Amino acid sequence: MHLRIESATTYAYDRPPRHSTQYLRLTPQSGPGQTVGRWDISAPGALTAWNDMFGNRCHTLSVERPGPALEIAVAGTVETRDTAGILPPSPADALPDAVYLRDTGYTGADHGIADFAEPWRDACRADRLAGLHELMTAIHAEIAYVEGATSVLTTAGEAFAERRGVCQDHAHILIAAARSLGIPARYVSGYLWTGETGETGAGGAAFSASHAWAECRIEELGWVSFDPANGVCANDAYVRVAVGFDYATACPVRGVRTGGGGERMTTEIRLFREDEPAILQAEREA
């Protein structure tokens, strides 16, 4: 699938800050499931590129006196392939698998999550892939997807207790559950083509927010993607951008500033499918 992605994140301040520093994880990299074409980040101020400990391509944006608003825009193209969610081991894996067993503030497995995951311990020992599929399906059924029910500060334990959340919460819960079973797991941020099209482009444009899911380590396969928010493994509708222990280490934009008072952040993301889907082509020909 050939996707064109456009994203704009805007910060509006009560009064102009004196300085802003933003850490951007907005640049996808080519790998087994995707090939990145043109990719541009547009922002005021100086952009400094670097790679973090997870192997993500990052940028630091430093802006002196950004004014009452600051916008960070992204535009690029990605060719995706369906690998059934499987990412073979790669030299680009910057950290050993064992580090992805550590708990974090977001992904600590409290008694609720650990007790929920425990019935799948034997299944994961017998067949880790099948057991994790069952665990993902159970989380998908147990945790309702409710926009606005949680915030970016909500932990896995809090979302699990409420039995509701968004994709970030579903990913954190699966990661916490998998780690409680001794399975390395990591957080993935990226984009998801939903197929909800508009009128622009060959396949239309899907308006969305960034998406999040999890990857678990399967010894004989590598990293395997699981999206408990949708109850499926990642396919060619997914674009991977960054990985980390949790949201805090893989989120698209994170920063600090001096001054400015209160702030409001808005993000608009549009995905255009630029190859002609077979079903749309058939409808046009009919």
Description of the structure:
The chain has 286 residues and is α+β, with helices and mostly antiparallel strands. Helix 1 (111-117) crosses helix 5, helix 3 (128-142) crosses helix 5 and helix 4 (156-162) crosses helix 5. The chain starts with a strand and ends with a helix. The protein has two domains: 2-79 and 252-285, Immunoglobulin-like (Sandwich), CATH 2.60.40; 80-250, C8orf32 fold, CATH 3.10.620.30. The strands form four sheets. A five-stranded antiparallel β-sheet has the order 3-6-1-16-11, with no helix packed on it. Residues 198-203 have low confidence and may be disordered. The protein is built from seven helices and 16 strands.
Please work out how many helical segments DSSP would assign: 7
Radius of gyration: 19 Å
The average pLDDT score comes to: 91
Q: N-to-C terminal Cα separation, in Å?
A: 23 Å
Q: Based on CA inertia axes, which overall geometry fits?
A: globular
Q: Estimate what percentage of residues fall within beta strands.
A: 35-45%
